[in-house]
Amino acid sequence: MKIIRSRMVRLFAVSALAASFIAVGIQNAHAAIRIFPATGGTCVGTEVLRCLELRYDDANERYRARAEITDVAGGSDAAVEVDLACAGPVGGTGDCNVGDPPGEPVKDTLESPFESCRQGDIITVRFSAEFSWRNIGTGATGSERRTGSAHFTCT
User: Fold this and answer.
1) What is the residue extent of each domain of the chain?
2) What is the pLDDT of residues 102-133, one digit of tens each?
3) Cβ 43 vs Cβ 50: under 8 Å
């Protein structure tokens, strides 16, 4: 009788442990970030690389734009900045974050505030960012506004 009981206890312990691993695996599989590139691709540029994408967080049912600008090594040196990053549903209002005052970084990143959506909603989101840069040697400046849109189901 003791042998059967100890086997039953082991069986229940192993089953409980396996169930917890399965539950964690399911939770982690659901915790994915879907990435939608901007129009023309996620990144553009050769000496000053400008990247924009929309990131949707499945686990928390929210999204936001992520923008990044980088002075690429090997070319002329530039001070770079992401001035603005925005995201919002088509036909609705979106939110923006404004970048820090200009400095002389070789890389700058900015994300829009999180926007949430309800599970099962099918939405189209527009997102954008404004970039600026200044050639440190010549003082020449440049700027660009990049945009994108994504159509997805909130899960």
Assistant:
1) 1-30, 33-153
2) 767 899 999 999 999 999 999 999 999 999 99
3) yes
Alpha helices in 53-140 (DSSP H): none
Which residue from 92, 145, 88, 91 is spatially nearest to 114, judged by alpha carbons? 88
Q: Are strands 78-89 and 95-98 parallel, antiparallel or unpaired?
A: antiparallel
Which candidate, 53, 37, 107, 58, places its Cα nearest to that of 85?
A: 53
The identity of residue 61, as a single letter, is E
Q: What dihedral do alpha carbons 62, 66, 81, 136 form, nearest 10°? A: 170
> Cβ-count burial of 116 within 10 angstroms (0-12 exposed, 13-18 middle, 19+ buried)?
exposed
CATH number for the domain formed by residue range(s) 33-153 = 2.60.40
Of 34, 43, 29, 85, nearest to 63 by C-alpha is 34
Sites in the chain below the pLDDT cut of 70: 1-31, 103
Alpha-carbon gap, residue 93 to 152, rounded angstroms: 18
pTM beyond cutoff 0.90: no
Q: Collapsing DSSP states into helix, strand and coil, what is residue 153?
A: strand
